[in-house]
Write a structure and sequence with these properties.
Elements: H1 26-34, E1 39-43, H2 50-59, E2 65-69, H3 77-89, H4 96-104, H5 114-122, E3 128-132, H6 140-149, E4 158-163, H7 172-176, E5 180-184, H8 185-188, H9 192-202, H10 209-219, H11 223-233, H12 239-244, H13 250-263, H14 267-276, H15 284-291, H16 296-305, E6 310-313, E7 319-322, H17 324-337, H18 341-355, H19 359-367, H20 373-388, H21 392-399, H22 411-425, H23 431-443, H24 450-470, H25 474-487, H26 493-509, H27 513-530, H28 533-550, H29 553-569, H30 579-591, H31 595-611, H32 615-631, H33 635-652, H34 661-672, H35 684-687, H36 695-711, H37 714-731, H38 734-747, H39 750-767, H40 771-774, H41 780-787, H42 794-806, H43 811-815, H44 827-836, H45 842-849, H46 853-867, H47 872-881
Parallel strand pairs: 1-4, 1-5, 2-3, 3-4
Antiparallel strand pairs: 6-7
Helix pairs in contact: 3-4, 4-5, 9-10, 9-11, 11-13, 14-16, 15-18, 18-19, 19-20, 20-21, 20-22, 22-23, 22-24, 23-24, 24-25, 24-26, 25-26, 26-27, 26-28, 27-28, 28-29, 28-30, 29-30, 30-31, 30-32, 31-32, 32-33, 32-34, 33-34, 34-36, 36-37, 36-38, 37-38, 38-39, 39-42, 41-42, 44-46, 45-46
Length: 890
């Protein structure tokens, strides 16, 4: 992606210059100096001298200062915290880079951020961070991160907030803790002496004390009103009459005195003031381009000399802005006097800023034009760069200015809107948008920049590949990706990283671990090179998931440890995408039956992902937490987590790792009713439409296998186990393969059972798989107990002991009081039970009862389930315990 300058951020990192008529205010400096509070809040309406006070105060101190002048465009978390980090970076202290990196992560944080306090403390206590015009901020994500920054802390630089209104969160904790100093309107009002000093600096010869007293009373010590009065009095021959001619509220005073200030200027300067009022900041060159007046630089100098509310931005006095109230009045007068003029002026301003490489400002001026063609052109050119910087809220706001953007012949813009919908809405149905992009590509073939036309085509295909994956059309997505990669040159790192990552995820969903591992390694390199942090972090998590299948828990854990170190060194652990590392850490711990570790990592993943609106991390974190709750038999808690997961998956089109919500609900039901008689509802059509083998199908078959083993349906269990083993061996899907190998041993004839079990347990031991085998439940217990009497390998024997220690008490005993059946036996079931006592085969029982062997088999399943047994021996023992069968006299 190309790099563009972002809103001349440098001009907003320098405190404004002090006004020529500055009145120093040591009485307020004392308030700011005497407290050890970490937060200074200076809150008052416009024109009370908040900024001048702080700039003058800082000039008296040797402290390093970080300054950020906020504007309304900062209501995008990614943009605001990037700018704030840039401001902190200007402190040039030893720990500056670390603090700046942590602050940039606040765009996605909502909970406690321990590393933030540590990073601020490392800066020392002497520095000052100033945020000017905080009242411009209203985006929830920005305010949430700012509140984290302002939490009470014992050390670190002081924070100064300059605002017209208090920030919309509670300051109570800061007041109680003594961490807050407040200076408000009543404190900022000029005293009689300060009024006299200000007027004396502007009015030749000063002003009579009586008139000073009148102005103080009329303006109520309002600095802006006093300055406007001074301008009005500058050339008057009758100061008494001039002072007597205005009265009323601040608003009335503003209108009157500003008009007086403007109308006293010559016609050329008046025109200059009106035409430059559309600019939020400007240089002499900007003014010349917008007004097309060769004397613009001279007019700017006249305005500064006349002290007409011009605020220099920086010591070099190149960039300026007008006082907000002054600009608002000028712009209002411009629109009233020349309603059509602002359109032309905004067009010139937009062109100038684009030429200067300041795309944000260029787009903002285009948004204020009635004609949307320029906005369309700018967004078509730059929208993908804006997405690459994660400034999604800003792009959404700009796109909202466009009527029917999908109907315009701007293909790159339409593709960018598609990515915006994928990232914000989580891949809704994109067919209409993709068709619109195709139409735009065809319509724009002539006269459209050829390089951008090619990039739009490539990005459209990349987007189509993602949409096909999200829709479950895996083969189609694979073919799209292959075609795109064949066309992409090596230097297109951003697009190649996207496509190869998508390809890796497709192979993972199809259970093909070797190509997935190779592609994830390639995508990591491209994404790291292009700065795609989102895919770097998610790719690290996915790579560990693949290793858990191919090499086992230990290798996966090593990779996740390395991923945490990698992210920590780059201060990325606060990003929502880091939840991908955390939820895979939880999943790996679950495989090893380290449930406490899985719980902690899962909760961290959910908290981080939820705070940053990262649905993939949120959903997969909930999934692991639900599985942990089910393993601990906290079934109500697990059901609640799955309900939350279902809502999230439906609203955000989530693709879960290796499963579906419906399958997880079946899994929970199977845990809760450990000996279900009936088969699970088959969901094959829903889990993998027309795509052959998938990991969701694998999970489904594992559940069928478990249910078949628990219900004694050995024939069905053998078929399922054989299919799982065949598919998983070739795909290197170790977890399901381990379960299938153990199941094969459980079902084998006694002559080969122990050799198979030795191999299966050895495989699981080397891979560290524990919980998947425990979920086979009671059918595993007697076989493991018997296995310990056999000559197993050391690894298999140790794993058998571990599994026996971790197996829960007999599930049927936990599910019912002693002496009770789950349900009463029917007459036919009682008859079958009596025949069991005679040790007859199923066929012999069928002949005795005049029914088919299959009917006997069905009755036996129900008897086993009601008795809480898994085989004939257990059923007879339980029946004798309950008095339903004669005692064993042999």
């Amino acid at each position: 992606m190309t790099s563009i300058r972002n809103d001349a951020i440098g001009t907003r990192l320098i405190p404004p210059s002090l006004p020529l008529d500055l009145v120093s205010r040591p009485r307020l400096f004392a308030r700011l100096d005497q407290s050890s509070a970490r937060l200074l809040l200076i809150s008052a309406p416009a024109g009370f001298g908040k900024t001048s006070l702080v700039v003058d105060w800082l000039a008296q101190r040797p402290s390093p200062v970080a300054w950020l002048s906020i504007d309304r465009h900062d209501n995008d978390p990614a943009r605001f915290f990037k700018h704030l980090a840039a401001a902190v970076a200007t402190l040039q202290l030893p720990a500056t880079s670390g603090a700046a990196a942590v602050i940039e992560t606040l765009a996605q944080r909502s909970g406690p951020v321990p590393e933030l306090h540590e990073a601020l403390a490392a800066l020392g206590d002497d520095g000052v961070i100033v945020l000017d015009d905080v009242h411009e901020l209203d985006a929830p994500g920005v305010l949430r991160g700012l509140q984290l920054l302002l939490e009470p802390r014992p050390s670190g630089p002081r924070m100064v907030l300059l605002t017209r209104v208090d920030p919309p969160f509670s300051l109570g904790r800061l007041r109680v803790s003594g961490n807050l100093v407040e200076i408000r309107e009543r404190d900022l009002r000029f005293t009689r002496g300060e009024c006299a000093a200000l007027l004396a600096s502007v009015v030749p010869g000063g002003l009579d004390p009586a008139l000073v007293a009148v102005l103080e009373e009329r303006t109520e010590g309002w600095a802006a009103g006093l300055r406007m009065a001074a301008i009005a009095l500058h050339d008057t021959t009758d100061p008494v009459a001039a002072v007597a001619s205005f009265a009323g509220t601040h608003r009335i005073v503003v209108d009157y005195l500003l008009e007086e200030a403007v109308e006293r200027q010559n016609a050329a300067v008046q025109r200059f003031l009106l035409e430059t009022s559309i600019l939020e900041r400007f240089t002499a060159e900007t003014c010349a381009a917008v007004t097309q007046d060769a004397a613009a630089a001279a007019h700017l100098a006249e305005v500064e000399a006349a002290n007409l509310f011009l605020v220099p931005l920086g010591a070099d006095r190149r960039w300026y802005r007008y006082h907000h109230l002054f600009r608002e009045l000028l712009e209002f007068r411009l629109r009233r006097l020349s309603p059509e003029r602002p359109e032309e002026l905004h067009a010139r301003a937009s062109a100038w800023f684009e030429g200067a490489g300041e795309v944000h400002s260029a787009i903002e001026h285009a948004c204020r034009m009635e004609d949307r063609s320029r906005l369309l052109q700018l967004l078509d050119t730059h929208a993908m760069d804006i997405i690459a910087r994660s400034e999604l809220a800003t792009l959404e706001r700009w796109v909202a200015h466009l009527p029917a953007p999908l109907e315009r012949p701007y293909p790159m813009l339409i593709v960018a809107i598609g990515w915006l919908r994928v990232l914000v809405e989580r891949a809704p149905d994109l067919q209409a948008l993709l068709a619109a992009a195709e139409s735009a590509l065809a319509a724009s073939a002539l006269g459209y920049d050829r390089a951008r036309h090619w990039r739009a085509r490539v990005q459209l295909d990349v987007l189509r590949g993602f949409a096909a994956r999200f829709a479950g059309r895996f083969e189609e997505a694979l073919e799209i990706n292959r075609a795109v990669l064949a066309e992409l040159p090596e230097e297109e790192a951003f697009s190649r990283g996207l496509v190869i990552y998508n390809q890796a995820r497709l192979h993972m969903l199809r259970g093909e671990m070797l190509p997935a591992a190779q592609l994830l390694a390639q995508s990591f390199e491209y994404n790291l090179r292009s700065g795609n942090t989102y895919l770097v972090l998610t790719g690290l998590g996915q790579a560990a998931a693949v290793s858990a299948q191919r090499e086992g828990v230990h290798r996966a854990h090593e990779q996740l440890d390395a991923a945490q170190v990698f992210a920590g060194q780059r201060h990325l652990t606060g990003l929502p995408a880091f939840s991908a590392v955390l939820y895979h850490l939880a999943a790996v711990a679950f495989l090893a039956d380290r449930l406490d570790e899985a719980q902690i990592a899962g909760e961290r993943a959910v908290e981080l992902a939820r705070s940053g609106n990262f649905p993939e991390g949120h959903a997969n974190g909930l999934l692991t937490l639900a599985r942990v709750a089910g393993a601990r038999r906290r079934f109500d808690e697990a059901r609640e987590l799955l309900t939350e997961l279902a809502a999230l998956a439906q609203n955000r089109n989530i693709i879960l790792a290796d499963t579906t919500v419906a399958l997880e609900q079946e899994r929970l039901a199977l845990r809760r009713e450990a000996h279900r008689a009936g088969p699970l509802v088959e969901r094959r059509a829903a889990t993998a439409p027309d795509e052959g083998w998938t990991t969701a199908l694998e999970t489904e078959l594992l559940l069928y296998l478990e249910q078949a083993l628990r219900s004694g349906d050995h024939e069905r269990a053998a078929g399922l186990g054989a299919r799982l083993r065949t598919e998983c061996e070739v795909r290197e899907r170790g977890v399901a393969l381990g379960v299938a190998l153990v199941a094969e041993a459980l079902l084998a004839e006694s002559s080969s059972r122990w050799e198979l079990l030795d191999r299966a347990l050895g495989f699981a031991a080397v891979r560290g798989y524990v919980r998947p085998l425990l979920e086979l439940g009671e059918p595993l217990r007697p076989v493991l107990q018997a296995a310990l009497t056999r000559p197993l390998s050391a690894a298999a024997r140790a794993h058998a002991r571990l599994l026996l220690e971790r197996l829960e008490p007999h599930e049927s005993a936990a599910a019912q009081p002693s002496g009770m059946l789950l349900e009463p036996l029917t007459a036919r079931e009682e008859q079958v039970l009596q025949h069991l006592c005679s040790d007859l085969s199923n066929k012999a029982i069928a002949r005795q009862m005049y029914v088919s062997a299959e009917t006997v088999k069905t009755h036996l399943k129900h008897v086993y389930w009601k008795l809480g047994a898994t085989n004939r021996r257990e059923a007879l023992a339980r029946a004798r315990e309950l008095g339903l069968a004669p005692p064993d006299l042999s």
